[in-house]
From TrEMBL:
<dbReference type="Pfam" id="PF01183">
    <property type="entry name" value="Glyco_hydro_25"/>
</dbReference>
<dbReference type="GO" id="GO:0016052">
    <property type="term" value="P:carbohydrate catabolic process"/>
</dbReference>
<dbReference type="InterPro" id="IPR002053">
    <property type="entry name" value="Glyco_hydro_25"/>
</dbReference>
<dbReference type="InterPro" id="IPR003646">
    <property type="entry name" value="SH3-like_bac-type"/>
</dbReference>
<dbReference type="Pfam" id="PF08460">
    <property type="entry name" value="SH3_5"/>
</dbReference>
<protein>
    <recommendedName>
        <fullName>SH3b domain-containing protein</fullName>
    </recommendedName>
</protein>
<dbReference type="GO" id="GO:0009253">
    <property type="term" value="P:peptidoglycan catabolic process"/>
</dbReference>
<dbReference type="GO" id="GO:0016998">
    <property type="term" value="P:cell wall macromolecule catabolic process"/>
</dbReference>
<feature type="domain" description="SH3b">
    <location>
        <begin position="209"/>
        <end position="276"/>
    </location>
</feature>
<dbReference type="GO" id="GO:0003796">
    <property type="term" value="F:lysozyme activity"/>
</dbReference>
<dbReference type="InterPro" id="IPR017853">
    <property type="entry name" value="GH"/>
</dbReference>
<comment type="similarity">
    <text>Belongs to the glycosyl hydrolase 25 family.</text>
</comment>
Amino acid sequence: MIIDISEWQHPDQIDYAQLAKQIDHVIVRVQYGSAYCDKYYQTHLQRFQDLGIPTAVYAWVRGTSHEDMAQEARTFYERAKVFQPCFYWLDVEEQSMIDMRGGVEVYRQTLKKLTNQKVGVYVAHHLYRQFNLAVEQFDALWLPSYGQNTGSYQGSDPTVNKHYDLHQYTSNGRLSGYNGVLDFNRLSGKKALNYFTGKAGNLPTWGIAGKGYFTLATAIHLRTAPNTSAQSLGILPTGSTVQYDAFAHEQGYVWIRQKRHDGTYAYLATGKSDGKKRTDASWGIFN
């Protein structure tokens, strides 16, 4: 099972551990054009990666010129690169410039050079012929076709191009672990799952391994990812002690990682950092 999600799936409504048991791969939206960053993409990516689910990323394309398309690609890469996704996708569902074919090709070329990764394209079914994108230049083609959109595959395959690799067949899918609806996708059979997720087994271990305990000298947010914009799991009060198994200097802080009872990880900032060393006293005591 392959699902794709965005900020419309709020982390507070997801039991990541339960959902992860039912899926093989997840594709997470990072941005809606360069000006809008998805609110929860970091949380989604980190939580699924912690659970061992191969994670890819996608960006809704909104560039208004060739240069704007190139800038969107650069912004997409900068936002996603820390998670080292196994695949990048462009989501083309609106006409944002006259020369969509040329603009999307600039986007692809720019992203390909930056990532040295596979880059695929998703094209809205009703706009496929109008845009006439150079889909043959991409590493994979992803097309939607829902039929009655019942939540299950009913044999309604894409017709605008039969050489697709991934088929989004419903937007009304349901799985335990999330009460809302989900987009479900299936492989066409032309490429194996490991073509899209092949890098997953080589995802680097986060941070530097090191076990210990940290006792807070002040109240600090416990988060789902090592970033101050990631979802807060709660504010740990002064005097709380956290057992950790790794640490890293990221996003201006020294973070420690806590393994949770459900197999996922939580992250706690313990003081400020310049990316290599502490720049101030830690916000607690290590032992």
